[in-house]
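Consider the following assembly input.
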Amino acid sequence: EIVMTQSPATLSVSPGERVTLSCRASQSISSNLAWYQQKPGQAPRLLIYGASTRATGIPARFSGSGSETDFTLTINSLQSEDFAIYYCQQYVDRWTFGQGTKVEIK
Amino acid sequence: QVQLVQSGAEVKKPGASVRLSCKTSGYTFTNFGVSWVRQAPGQGLEWMGWISVDNGGPISAQKFQDRVTISTDTSTATVYMDLRRLTSDDTAVYYCARDVRWDVAVAGVWGQGTLVTVSS
């Protein structure tokens, strides 16, 4: 099973800041990487797939990069509605999710 | 618009089975696969399986292979997931999710979730 490791576990930031979240795969997954956002009590929301393709309706401040084993989700100018938990997920061999990174208000 | 509406909350005893449904609308049912993902209280996301609606071939996570069955009813555009031999560890919110594109098996549209509580 491919293991996905996200870092950090928690990120304390102020609105307006730029945020970088990391995700590492235990083996190469090419660009088969997705990012999701989840707020309390809600279903996850797809942000990025194919490592860098924004899903429909996702603001341009969200961007994804990386390939093989190392990936990054960047949120430029963090908005109040962006405080949430973010998960990465590989889909090259079945699916596995990372454990999540919580972005909280500093 | 695309919608996935899941069945209501369930309370089950240990050892029992549960069948969850996911009724889809707003798109051509046979063009997209559907996955099931669960989330235990306070925990992360866990993928359970996926079904290709056009050829009916389900794929399950190894952890659930002997306990889960995913099926479809094309006539009602509904996807089902059966989970057997429930334990307290199966207490979770269960989500269904449709692929974002016909050729990309990533969860693009999610149902609202179904809470399953397993308790004696």
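The two ends of chain B are 40 Å apart (CA to CA). Ask yourself how this observation constrains the way the partners meet.
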